[in-house]
Design goal:
mainly alpha; about 280 residues; single chain; disordered C terminus
C-alpha cells in the first residue's frame, strides 16, 4: 500500500462514515443456548487458573529466595513482569474466544459500556473467581510449606498505609488498566488505524506491569478481584479477609470511572445523546 493509499484509508475512517457496532443485549438470555458462550466461560476459567498459578508461584518463589539472600529472587520488577507478561500471553490466547477479560473489573467495565450482556458478565465473573481459586489451590498443593510460610500470594494492605490509601491505589490502578483495555480494543480506532498493525494484548500487559510497579508496596496490587479472592480463599487468614473489600470496591469503582471516561468523554457519547434529545424536542 502506497503512502497516498494509506492516507486515504486513514481519512476514510476519520469519524463520519464509521458506525459503532450495536450495543450488546442488556440481559442476553439467548446466549445460554449457544456453545460459543460456554466455550468462552471455559476459556476464562482456564486463563484465570493459569494466571494465578504462574503469578502466585512467582511471588512465593521470590519471597523464599530473598529470605536467605536479600539480593536473591526476581525482585518486585520480576513480579511485575510476571503479572504483566501473563496477561499479555493469556489475552493474546483468549481474545478471539472470550474477549480475554481474565478480570471481573474488566468485565464490569465492559458491561457498563454495553459491550457484554448481564448474563455473560455475571458468568464470566463466576468462571474467573473459580479459576483463580483452582490456580492458587494448585500452588498450595505443589508447595504447601512455602505457600503457608510466605503468605500465599494473598493481597493485604501493607503496614504504614491506611485503608483510604489502599482503596485509592486500587481505584487508580484499575482505571489505568480498564482505560487501556477500552483504548486498545476500540473498534473505531482499529478501523481508523487499520493500516497500522497494533497488537492489543501488548499495551494491556504493559498497563498491568506498570501498575504493579507502583502499587505492590501498598496493597500487593490487586486490580483484579478474582486474583485477590482466589488467594484469600486458599490462604484463609484474617488479614486477607479483613482487607478483601478494598480489592473489590476499588477495582469496580476504577472500572466504572474508566468506562464513563472512555464512552462519554473520549468517544463523546454524551454529546450524541444530547444531540438526539434536542432533535426530538
Amino acid at each position: 500500500m502506497g503512502k497516498e493509499e494509506v492516507t486515504e484509508a486513514a481519512h476514510e475512517y476519520s469519524g463520519k462514515d464509521y458506525q459503532d457496532p450495536p450495543p450488546a443485549a442488556f440481559i442476553g438470555i439467548d446466549e445460554l443456548g449457544k456453545w460459543s458462550f460456554y466455550r468462552a466461560l471455559i476459556a476464562e476459567f482456564i486463563a484465570t487458573l493459569l494466571f494465578l498459578y504462574i503469578t502466585v508461584l512467582t511471588v512465593i518463589g521470590y519471597k523464599s529466595q530473598s529470605a536467605t539472600d536479600p539480593c536473591g529472587g526476581v525482585g518486585i520488577l520480576g513480579i511485575a513482569w510476571a503479572f504483566g507478561g501473563m496477561i499479555f500471553v493469556l489475552v493474546y490466547c483468549t481474545a478471539g474466544i472470550s474477549g480475554g477479560h481474565i478480570n471481573p473489573a474488566v468485565t464490569f467495565g465492559l458491561f457498563l459500556a454495553r459491550k457484554v450482556s448481564l448474563i455473560r458478565a455475571v458468568m464470566y465473573m463466576v468462571a474467573q473467581c473459580l479459576g483463580a481459586i483452582c490456580g492458587v489451590g494448585l500452588v498450595k498443593a505443589f508447595q504447601k510449606s512455602y505457600y503457608n510460610r510466605y503468605g500465599g500470594g494473598a493481597n493485604e494492605l501493607a503496614d504504614g498505609y491506611n485503608k483510604g490509601t489502599g482503596l485509592g491505589a486500587e481505584i487508580i490502578g484499575t482505571f489505568v488498566l480498564v482505560y487501556t483495555v477500552f483504548s486498545a480494543t476500540d473498534p473505531k480506532r482499529n478501523a481508523r488505524d487499520s493500516h497500522v498493525p497494533v497488537l492489543a494484548p501488548l499495551p494491556i500487559g504493559f498497563a498491568v506491569f506498570m501498575v504493579h510497579l507502583a502499587t505492590i508496596p501498598i496493597t500487593g496490587t490487586g486490580i483484579n478481584p478474582a486474583r485477590s479472592f482466589g488467594a484469600a480463599v486458599i490462604y484463609n487468614k484474617d488479614k486477607a479477609w479483613d482487607d478483601q473489600w478494598i480489592f473489590w470496591v476499588g477495582p469496580f469503582i476504577g472500572a466504572a470511572i474508566a468506562a464513563f471516561y472512555h464512552q462519554y468523554i473520549l468517544r463523546a457519547a454524551a454529546l450524541k445523546a444530547l444531540g438526539s434529545f434536542r432533535s426530538n424536542a
